[in-house]
């Protein structure tokens, strides 16, 4: 399968799906749901120029430190844990880490898929019988990216649906998801980047970005972080890629 991918006989999307399957990830388990990378960093331009490397996320870095200013905070946290200044673990069972949360978990999957069943019901069950407050919901792709850039503790990567399933971006069931506290904006369909004119257009362009020359040349760097040798040990520490 690796050789087929290297020879461009299968797409980046198909290769990632195969890797997730081989790693034991499955649509049948929200705690081990398939994980895909954020691949773009431009969610504000009127047009998306896939020939410009600047529109792409740096795939060699974990999402928590794609914004260079977060790297210092993440390093200092790891060092402080290493010295046990802010970290009491009397049994010595917990290893030091850069991130206290994870790039893929059940709550994150429900967060993205809140508008489609059965994830709506699962989300409501998780939130004790109601929707979470609107400000914490997935309401905008540009705002979600900006939150990742501003907060090194938010390290959610994407799910495969971002590359083929436009319906998850629409509130087709008319759920009352509340309104944002500051702007009073009602949360309904997901707000798209300016360069996407509809959910279908977003999926089309996002999938095109995934199969672009830039991503094809750099995807292995992200695979090293998630599925490869930078998951654990000294390589993970050096890459700022150690998770709780």
TrEMBL record:
Gene3D superfamilies in UniProt: BEACH domain
Keywords: WD repeat
KW Cell membrane (keyword) present: no
UniProt-recorded Gene Ontology molecular function terms: protein kinase binding
CDD domains: Beach (cd06071)
InterPro entries reported in the protein's UniProt record: BEACH_dom, BEACH_dom_sf, BEACH_Domain
Organism: Tychaedon coryphoeus (Karoo scrub-robin)
Gene name of the encoded protein: Nbeal1_0
GO BP term (any one): intracellular protein localization
PROSITE patterns named in the record: BEACH (PS50197)
Stated name of the protein: NBEL1 protein
Pfam families: Beach
């Amino acid at each position: 399968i690796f050789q087929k991918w290297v020879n461009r006989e299968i797409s980046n999307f198909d290769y990632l799906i195969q890797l997730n399957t081989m790693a034991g990830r499955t649509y049948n388990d929200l705690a081990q749901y398939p994980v895909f990378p954020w691949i773009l960093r431009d969610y504000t331009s009127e047009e998306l120029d896939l020939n410009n490397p600047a529109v792409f996320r740096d795939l060699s870095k974990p999402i928590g430190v794609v914004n260079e200013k977060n790297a210092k905070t993440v390093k200092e946290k790891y060092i402080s844990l290493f010295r046990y200044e802010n970290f009491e673990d009397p049994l010595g069972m917990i290893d030091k880490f850069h991130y206290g949360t994870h790039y893929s978990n059940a709550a994150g999957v429900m967060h993205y898929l809140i508008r489609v069943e059965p994830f709506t019901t699962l989300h409501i069950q998780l939130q004790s019988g109601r929707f979470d407050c609107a400000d914490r919901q997935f309401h905008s792709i540009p705002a979600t990216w900006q939150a990742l850039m501003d907060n090194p503790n938010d390290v959610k990567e994407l799910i495969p649906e971002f590359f083929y399933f436009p319906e998850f971006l629409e509130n087709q069931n008319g759920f009352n998801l509340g309104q944002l506290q500051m702007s009073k904006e009602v949360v309904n369909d997901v707000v798209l980047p300016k360069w996407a004119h509809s959910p279908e257009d977003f999926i089309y362009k996002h999938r095109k970005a995934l199969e672009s020359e830039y991503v094809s040349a750099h995807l292995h760097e992200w695979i090293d972080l998630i599925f490869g040798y930078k998951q654990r040990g000294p390589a993970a520490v050096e890459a700022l890629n150690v998770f709780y």
